[in-house]
Design goal:
The chain is mostly helical and 405 residues long. The protein has helices at 2-22, 37-55, 63-79, 83-96, 102-119, 131-165, 180-191, 198-216, 219-225, 228-235, 262-276, 279-291, 337-340, 358-364, 375-404, and strands at 30-34, 240-243, 252-255, 306-307, 321-322, 325-326, 332-333, 366-369. A two-stranded antiparallel ribbon has the order 1-8.
């Protein structure tokens, strides 16, 4: 009877989720905003000015500018300690400067990176995927998370100081290896804030392009992203980005597929931004973010289904999931990030020298949105897939052990 119930749950939910996920393919991607001719001209003029300036002889910084550069570097290093400190820093900045909406997107995406990192040491994955793969995947996530922060956070602090003084300080960008691309966008934004979605769209493009050469296109990570094991984790929906709201069944988000493709990552970022800032969800998600400090454990948003306390091992593997909940008196182990991963990335950080094709970038300067399937359905279906593989693996090992006796 128990076996039939298990099969009914898995064989109902997983195929139904596949059908639900097929519907967005029939919808066109909608362009919400795109670059105007005036903005295009402003950007091109600004980039030319920055290029000329960068080609000139550098003048020594004044003492007040030296102190500001030193302080920003020190503060960036302080908060770039690990995923937890980075995630917190993004939210603190957004709460001070809500007009810089990208910083809230960065907070929520960084939260999900932390959850994914913790999953690698959680209930199921250590029993499904090889330890070396899990470590390499953690290293990639941690490095990408750190590299983006090292590039983006000095920009945020320069904006904060520019806002305080009433004078643009983005001429100091090159001291933080910031791309001329995003420096030009900031200069336009500071002169005239009413630029639509120019700044967040540019920030999405900048950060994904920043990690392209220095991380995604390195031989080590190309090999990882092309591996069969990585494709397995994509099928299991392990890298879903979830924006929790209460009640949880109304949560929204996206699946993160095709990570190795720059265009797909940019589109994903644009869709995530469009999804996050929907009027009916933005306030709820922001309330959640402020109420629940980020720990990396999924019990942050669902303490009824997850626990950060390591469970005592069962003699026989047991199913814990039942449709959209866990069974009575059971919880899935989801550890605190800093309890299970002790090392983090602290450099070296390479220059952000990716900006070499203006026309390509200008074509990408738009904000798109495409209808997303039921996130909660996809989320729980993914958990059921993981548990199914976990149980199958466990039973196979038990059978093999019994045959050898």
């Amino acid at each position: 009877m128990m076996t039939s119930k298990r099969l009914f749950t898995k064989l109902t939910l997983i195929p139904f989720e596949l059908v639900i996920n097929a519907f967005p393919f029939f919808h066109r991607e909608k362009v919400i905003w795109q670059l105007s001719k005036e903005q295009r001209m402003l950007l091109q003029d600004e980039w030319k000015r920055i290029k000329r300036r960068n080609g000139e002889v550098k003048i020594n910084l004044q003492s007040n500018s030296k102190e500001l550069v030193r302080r920003i570097k020190a503060e960036t290093k302080r908060y770039n300690k690990n995923n937890v400190t980075r995630t917190s820093a993004y939210l603190t900045f957004y709460n001070k400067h809500p007009e810089i909406s990208w910083s809230f997107l960065a907070h929520m995406v960084s939260r999900n990176a932390g959850y994914f990192m913790s999953d690698l040491k959680g209930e199921f994955l250590p029993h499904i995927l090889e330890e070396t793969f899990l470590t390499k995947l953690y290293d990639m996530l941690e490095k990408g998370n750190s590299m983006i922060f090292e590039d983006a956070y000095p920009q945020l602090l320069l904006y904060e100081e520019s806002k305080r003084t009433g004078i643009s300080l983005f001429h100091l960008s090159h001291h933080f290896n910031v791309s001329p691309f995003i420096e030009g966008v900031w200069e336009i934004y500071i002169r005239q804030e009413n630029q639509g979605f120019l700044l967040p769209v540019a920030q999405i493009i900048n950060e994904q392009s920043h990690i392209e050469k220095a991380l995604v296109q390195t031989e080590e990570y190309k090999e990882l992203l092309n591996s069969i094991t990585y494709r397995l984790q994509e099928w299991l929906k392990l890298s879903q980005i979830l924006f929790p709201t209460w009640p949880l069944k109304q949560s929204i988000g996206r699946n993160m597929n095709h990570f190795k493709n720059l265009n797909e990552r940019i589109r994903l970022g644009q869709n995530l931004y469009s999804t996050l800032f929907q009027t009916q969800f933005a306030t709820k998600i922001h309330r959640f973010a402020n109420a629940i400090p980020h720990t990396g454990s999924r019990c942050d948003y669902d303490h009824n289904s997850f626990t950060a306390i390591y469970p005592s091992p069962d003699k026989f593997p047991k199913e814990k999931l039942s449709f959209f909940k866990v069974k009575n008196n059971t919880k899935i182990y989801s550890p605190f990030l800093l309890d299970v991963w002790k090392h983090s990335f602290s450099g070296p950080y390479l220059d952000s020298n990716w900006f070499d094709d203006e026309e390509y970038v200008l074509k990408k300067m738009k904000l798109v949105n495409k209808p997303s399937p039921s996130t909660w359905m996809t989320y729980w279906s993914g958990l059921h897939k993981i548990e199914s593989v976990f149980l199958f693996n466990k039973y196979c090992k038990m059978l093999k052990k019994n045959r050898n006796l």
